[in-house]
Structure formats: C-alpha cells, structure tokens
Amino acid sequence: MTSSNFEPHPAAGRWDTRGVDASGSAGYCSFTKAIEHLGDRWSLLVVRQLGILGPQGFNDLATGLPGRISRSVLADRLRRLEMLGVVSRCEDPHPAYRLTDVGLGLMAPLGALRTWAETWLPDDPAMVERDPDVVLGWLARRVERAHCPARPVVLEFRLHHRCDRRYWLVVQRGAQPYGCLTDPLLDPARYVYLESSIPALLALARGRGDWSRAVRDGSVTAAGDPALVSRVGDWFRPVPERSHTR
C-alpha cells in the first residue's frame, strides 16, 4: 500500500522527502513559508515583546523594542502580523496589540532560539550601549531571588570607558528583579556601585563569568556598603565549572 503522506520512521535513517522536488532541491515547504513571513529583523521581536509584556500600545512597542525601529516600519510589521493572524488589536480599555493563540504558539520556538543564541553566538560588545535593556534582562534572569536581601538593593553599573553611562538593576528577596535605564531613586544607602569592562559585563550577564572571580581580578570594581558589596556574588546563580573554560 502506498500513500503520498508516508513518512519513514526516524530509525530507518532516512529523511522525510516531502517538500523536496524531483531534482532534490527544497521546495516551498512550511519552513520556507515561515521564513518568508517572519524572517525580517522586526517581526519576531514584536512577537517576543507582546509575549513577555502582554498587550502593548503602538507607542509602547515603538519605544520598547530593542534597537531603533521607525514608526512606518513598525506599522507595516503589525499589519502583516495581523494578516497572518499572529497579532490582533484590542480596544478595551485602551487601543493595544496582543498575541492571538497563533502568536502564542511562537513563544516556545522563540525561547529555544534564545537559548541557542545565548549558548553559541559570540558576544557583541556594541550591544551593551546599543541595547542595554537586553543586557539588564540577562542579568535579571541570573538573580537568585531567594538569596537577595529582604530590603531592595540597587546595583548601579558603569562601563570603564563610558562612566557617563549608567544602568540599574534592582534586586530583593522573593521579588522579580528589574532593570532601569534611569535611576530608580531608592534609598542611597542601599546602592552598590559596580564598574566593569564590556567583556566582563557580558560574561556575567550571559552566565559565563563568576562574580567573585571578576571582583578579585579587577575586571569588576565594587563600592558601597561593605556588608552589601561582599554579598553581591551570592545574589546570582553560580556558573557551572564547564562555563569557565568555554
């Protein structure tokens, strides 16, 4: 018995040849369609933003996406995503865009892609200044909330070569850590001032650098209340030993 839908068992060591034409070239398969519709720079970033933050207004998306997107390009991408059924507009209580069930189905593949990128793609030092919110997000994901102080602590980051640029990460026991691009203006006694090189900051943010080691070798300097400074390394997940040698 033959069937056009026959797919060999993986154990047979054969590829599924659906979507491959007689010449052996890949045809117009589902993967090709996905890349054509979603493979530009911005579409998946819009999906990710809506998936993480929930419904967003146009202005929120325009200012919140990493990098700089023009309003005309954003409007075009949103129209295309609406046509695909990935995004829909809601008007209550305010006009906003949200993911449909189709769009929510993209979040798991996006998570897998992010994990792959963080594991294998080389660091881009320029992104620390271009997209500091992304780096703060990486740092926030490495926080061990159970090990943080009961009262909020603000970690203020400065770069060795750009002391005029500052970024803030607020940590507290049991609370979701969050990054700020402006000073959160909390209790000054609860600030820890950290200065580092870009490579050191990226290594810490991506889980390849150890806080205690970075402070010891001088790639990160810390100032503030000694009781807080001495415990900064405890507030982040330890780095697996194999990560030091990557």
Automatic annotation (TrEMBL):
One Pfam family matching this protein: HxlR
Record-level Gene Ontology MF annotations: DNA binding
Keyword annotations of the record: DNA-binding, Transcription, Transcription regulation
Statement: the UniProt record of this protein carries the keyword Transcription: yes
InterPro entries per UniProt: HTH_HxlR, WH-like_DNA-bd_sf, WH_DNA-bd_sf
Residue stretches making up the HTH hxlR-type domain: 29-125
Name of the featured protein: HxlR family transcriptional regulator
Gene that encodes the chain: hxlR
